[in-house]
Amino acid sequence: MSSASNPPVETIGIVGLGYVGLPLALLFARGGGRVLGFDIDAAKVAKLSAGESYILHIGADRIAAARKDDGFAATTDFQRVTECAAIIICVPTPLKGRREPDLSYVLKTGADIAPHLRPGVLVVLESTTYPGTTDTELREVLERGSGLKAGTDFHLAFSPEREDPGNPASQVAEIPKVIGGFTPACRDRALAVYGRVIRQLVPVANCRVAEAVKLTENIFRAVNIAMVNELKMVYDAMDIDIWEVIDAAKTKPFGFMPFYPGPGWGGHCIPIDPFYLTWKARSYGQDTRFIELAGEINTAMPHYVLARLEKALATQGRGLSGARVLLLGIAYKANVDDDRESPGYVLWGLLEQAGALVAYHDPNVPVIRPSREHSRYAGRRSVGLTAETLAGFDAVLVATKHDGVDYPLIAATARLIVDTRNAFAGVRVDPVKYFKA
């Protein structure tokens, strides 16, 4: 494939303008290229076209500047794929029932772009998936729909996204980029494209290695989170504070990396990605006992938290049924507005099953948006955090620790606090009404 087969003006197409795709699109735009963002959500496209943002940590000023100065545009028209020298796919890869991979978004995207691919184009998948997805399922869809052959007529690669939402020090351009190609030439083309905007590139042998890298990173986190969650339960029984243990242990300058417990796992990666590997491993006759055990522990944590809340309420002579509970934080992690797979929703459901009356406060999620997983809560609004509001609840259950929340006010006013995130460290609170979970 010669460079002459590429469009004369290098336009980068980003499919999926969510928490991964939009920052990447803005980065390429700021790097001096022309960028087309594709999304099936017309409301998102309309907001971007108006210079507005729908993601907390991406300011509207960045959108407006990208549109005005950097050649960024958003569209729902997939025919415009013909304008692109490279297409980067950043769409969801959720789970179906029984923890089976759902590649429908990836394969539908492949089918949508395939008829509009030009010879010489680069297609990169960034969505987390099991090894073999890019060079088998996606490749077959692209080849069938375009009449082109990967590695001969067009380039194909996998480069896993690495995002750390809520961490201001995490900048896409500074995070090393792993890249694997269907062929060495495919990899080199992807390296050239990403090299315009990413400081450090990490080439690997092929797409499957790159896919395995991402799974390994997230499985590492899932297993270690499960370990500290299990230790939390053990140390609670011994009247030992897990948070103090971790703070002391992390002073060791070697051989230890701190992970922190919580009410369960959440987000678009950790609760999902490990099971892409467990599913694929079975087709090779391999068991993934470590991963499955981590899943069992992390999935059980909301039930443990509920039991701790029930015990705390009993100290005040009441049970869960009829109790008014304020869920503090519905985003899956601190200082983000991303509520995908949030353990807060699991807690909410368990509380309602037990007969509790639940409201939530989250400064980053003022209104719960419709989603695949938690549509029943769509439209619910965050309640204000005032002394009067707090007085109306029997308990405050901390699910997420956001900066900017008035924890001293809660400590002074709430009748009962159950804290899964050590949010009240350094805050004076009556021990009679404060419980960790």
Task: Provide a compact summary of the structure.
The chain is an alpha/beta fold. It has helices spanning 21-30, 42-49, 60-69, 104-113, 133-146, 184-194, 207-237, 242-249, 273-282, 289-314, 343-353, 387-391, 407-413; strands at 11-15, 34-38, 72-75, 86-89, 95-96, 100-101, 122-125, 155-158, 177-181, 201-203, 324-328, 357-361, 395-398, 417-419, 434-436.
Going by helix content, strand content and strand pairing, the class is alpha/beta
| N-to-C span | 59 Å
- Stated plainly, the CATH topology of the largest domain is called Rossmann fold
Level-1 CATH class name of the largest domain = Alpha Beta
The CATH architecture of the largest domain can be given as 3-Layer(aba) Sandwich
DSSP strand tally:
15
Order of helices and strands: EHEHHEEEEHEHEEHEHHHHEHEHEHEE
Could you estimate the helical fraction of the residues in percent? 25-40%
State which percent range the strand residues make up: 5-15%
Q: Helix segment count? A: 13
